UniProtKB/TrEMBL annotation:
This is Triosephosphate isomerase. One of its GO terms (cellular component) is cytosol. The keyword Magnesium does not apply. GO terms for biological process: gluconeogenesis; glyceraldehyde-3-phosphate biosynthetic process; glycerol catabolic process; glycolytic process. Keywords: Cytoplasm, Gluconeogenesis, Glycolysis, Isomerase. Pathway: Carbohydrate degradation; glycolysis; D-glyceraldehyde 3-phosphate from glycerone phosphate: step 1/1; Carbohydrate biosynthesis; gluconeogenesis. Substrate binds at residues 8-10, 145, 180, 201-202. GO terms for molecular function: triose-phosphate isomerase activity. It comes from Methanococcoides methylutens MM1. PROSITE patterns: TIM_1, TIM_2. Homotetramer; dimer of dimers. NCBIfam families: PRK04302.1, tim. It is found in: Cytoplasm. Its EC number is 5.3.1.1.
Length: 221
């Protein structure tokens, strides 16, 4: 399986509106040159903008486990799919859900053929998430998010242990590594610990030259 890199644009100004398009173009260009799948997760209002202008995999930052009907203010999986997304993040540390809501979101996403990445913060929650059969779990200790300190160095056992736990539960679920990832050595270390890729954000989005930062990220793979 080739590595998967998912770039979360959060609500950074650099990744808003036309900024989201420019960063998505960098993801496309570096992905094509390297042969590595690089996806982007823009804000909900930018999903259609990015998906319609750039040939790059687009993920929603969140969806809710609701169907059609009276659900004002919720994120409906069908509309995310129709906007051009191919997948979604679920339970990011900045958008936490309870276990029942995580399961409902996974079910809603899968009902529309969307890939699912459930974010977790330790080995135990990674194991619990894997039992719900998402496509990926992304382990990210919250204290390291945005810190510039990669989890693959600060707490490698949480990645190694998560990979082992997931393999015991469902070998079809794959593990991504997140928090503090920004450089080629970080991605290489994450892969050596057993993950199939990374979920990252500020190290690329807020870089002076996001394309150059992405090129460095994939340089050792």
């Amino acid at each position: 399986m080739r590595p998967l890199i998912v770039l979360n644009l959060k609500t950074y100004l650099e990744g808003t509106g036309e900024g989201a398009v420019r960063i998505a173009e960098a993801c496309r260009d570096v992905g094509e040159a390297s042969g590595i799948e690089i996806a982007v997760a823009p804000q909900l209002c930018d999903v259609y903008r990015v998906a319609s202008q750039v040939d790059v995999p687009v993920y929603s930052q969140h969806i809710d486990g609701v169907g059609a009907g009276s659900f004002t203010g919720h994120v409906f999986a069908r509309s995310v799919k129709d906007a051009g997304a191919v997948g979604t993040l679920i339970n990011h540390s900045e958008r936490r859900l309870n276990l029942a809501d995580i399961e409902a979101s996974i079910t809603a996403a899968k009902g529309e053929g969307l890939r699912t990445i459930v974010c977790t913060n330790n080995i135990a929650t990674t194991a619990a998430a894997a039992a719900l059969k998402p496509d990926f779990v992304a382990v990210e200790p919250p204290e390291l998010i945005g810190s510039g300190i990669p989890v693959s160095k600060a707490d490698p056992e949480v990645v190694r242990g998560s990979v082992s736990a997931v393999e015991r539960i469902d070998a079809d679920v794959k593990v991504l590594c997140g928090a503090g990832i920004s450089k080629g050595e970080d991605l290489k270390a994450a892969m050596e610990l057993g993950s199939v890729g990374v979920l990252l954000a500020s190290g690329i989005v807020k870089a002076e030259d996001p394309k150059a930062a992405l090129e460095d990220l994939v340089s050792l793979i």
